[in-house]
Design brief:
single chain; 150 residues; mainly alpha; Cytochrome Bc1 Complex, Chain D, domain 2; 33% helix; binds heme C
């Protein structure tokens, strides 16, 4: 087989792009949550707010009321209101809850694991092996949650 220099450079670049991103099944859940950023890049709270309320992404309002988003319709009450949530949980725990709530609550929690490959039973074939949110979207949502202080 013959490699051109271009092909080798392209492979090196695509490896570098993922080097600092933790794979969903390699996230380390400790007693205090997930200590390190999933991407090594700080989360953006503005992007996180958008992901939070996007019905096709976080869809967090389906289950959680959030006074900070009182302009949005249909706040669910399946989960607790998220007002002041950053005063109840430190950032590593917020990251663990969003990435995989089952690691923090119980296996029976109805909250999806947003950065987990075990989304649930009967997953659509095209979604097998995919997470609901990307690692950076999780970091952005965590940064947004960090703004919800009492
Ligand atoms: C299908 C419903 C559902 C969705 C969607 C959902 N959650 Fe939850 N969430 C829950 C439930 C229920 C709990 C309480 C834990 C339990 O009893 O399972 C919870 C707990 C939490 C907690 C802990 C709150 C506290 O005060 O202790 C946080 C933080 C949280 N969710 C964030 C989010 C975020 C961010 C999203 C969107 C990315 C989200 N949730 C989407 C159902 C949901």
């Amino acid at each position: 087989m013959k490699f051109t220099l271009g092909a080798i450079a392209a492979v090196a670049l695509s490896t570098a792009a993922f080097a600092s991103e933790v794979a969903p099944d390699a996230v380390e859940y400790g007693d205090e949550g997930v200590m390190a950023s999933l991407t090594g890049v700080a989360g953006d709270p503005v992007a996180g707010a958008a992901t939070f309320k996007d019905r096709k992404l976080g869809n967090c309002l389906a289950c959680h009321a959030n006074a900070d988003m009182s302009g949005e319709q249909f706040h669910g009450d399946v989960g607790p209101a998220l007002d002041g949530v950053a005063s109840r949980w430190e950032e590593p725990m917020l990251r663990a809850i969003v990435a995989n709530s089952k690691q923090v609550f119980t296996d029976e929690t109805v909250m999806p694991g947003f950065y987990s490959l075990k989304v649930g039973q009967h997953v659509r074939e095209d979604l097998v092996g995919k997470t609901i949110l990307t690692a950076q979207q999780v970091e952005d949502v965590v940064a947004y949650l960090g703004t919800l202080k009492e």
